[in-house]
């Protein structure tokens, strides 16, 4: 049974999400869309304006209407007073960002990890974050920090349970980051964070059902139904990285001879990971080192060897997505992968292979790439905080943990 505070937060969330979707919008229209009474909407909007989540837009009334009183003033999400910070921690580097309440990136900074693993990845970040927050947060109140990474992450405990490439085991991310910044911290897996971002700010079908596939140095997936991101025991949506697939980046019809850490051959995380792709590019002389930016440059200048490697990986990804779609049958599939983001031709290869392999969904229109481009990891990083704000706005900004 919901307490009074729970009902207050549920109503506030309904109002805030409605304004996010339809704003600028009048209070009377909010009442019609949410089913709340006019007085309930009025109470909630007073709170949400006071907290800095909504703002009144008198300049949009048009004037000359003869209307009198506050209820006629359109409301919109306030993108000027508050901000959320985000930190995505990956193998090659980390992304620090500042976002407004519509998930738009106000500031983004890439930070190289310089080959570090273990706690050595975090130590310089913990020292640097307070200075970054002070430098970019001027003029806004930063209400929280999101921290996302790959692997198995427990958002309730704020702990990264396992991240193989970073050599993390039970890393207490929330505790370390809260001690360093003084901000409340929300921790999550980056695929789940990207899924929440799509639900909040992206394709309308995401709110019915969707699957997110993240292909980087780790391969992660997340599932959402009716706007809720699935969190399975123990804090994992699943482990798609061990999905068996045929093909390697050098031979699309072969089976990888590199053994996964699970002991098997043909795992998706080995066949299609960034590590595998970049190492193959270096081995074939496409790049001087196993490096993302060198391979991107080779693809952009039209190197046929680079194009072949990237297309082969796209075919492997398409096969994996076909298997996944046949099992889950979602309304939307979203792919986050470097080359699909920078060139639509590579997404077309994924979609063609998907349509060829799927028994259930021959139409690949449900498969899209993330549309945030270079900002994709920045948005993912801040979304755990934004998701909490939109789900429990009053609690999120009046909690005793909030500085």
Could you provide a short overview of the structure?
The chain is an alpha/beta fold.
Please describe what this structure looks like:
The chain has 403 residues and is of the alpha/beta class. The protein folds into three domains: 4-77, Arc Repressor Mutant, subunit A; 82-194 and 377-398, Nucleotidyltransferase, domain 5, CATH 3.30.420.40; 205-370, ATPase, nucleotide binding domain (Nucleotidyltransferase, domain 5, 2-Layer Sandwich). Helix content is 42%, strand content 20%. It has 14 helices and 15 strands. The strands form four sheets. It has a five-stranded mixed sheet with strand order 5-4-3-6-10, sandwiched between helices. A five-stranded mixed sheet has the order 13-12-11-14-15, sandwiched between helices. Strand 7 and strand 8 form a beta hairpin. It is globular.
Give the topology, please.
Layout: H1 4-22, H2 27-34, H3 38-50, E1 54-56, E2 75-77, E3 82-89, E4 93-99, E5 105-112, H4 119-136, E6 141-149, E7 152-154, E8 159-163, E9 168-171, H5 173-181, E10 185-189, H6 190-201, E11 209-215, E12 219-225, E13 228-229, H7 268-271, H8 274-283, H9 292-300, H10 304-328, E14 332-337, H11 338-342, H12 344-357, E15 367-369, H13 376-391, H14 393-398
Parallel strand pairs: 3-6, 6-10, 11-14, 14-15
Antiparallel strand pairs: 1-2, 3-4, 4-5, 7-8, 8-9, 11-12, 12-13
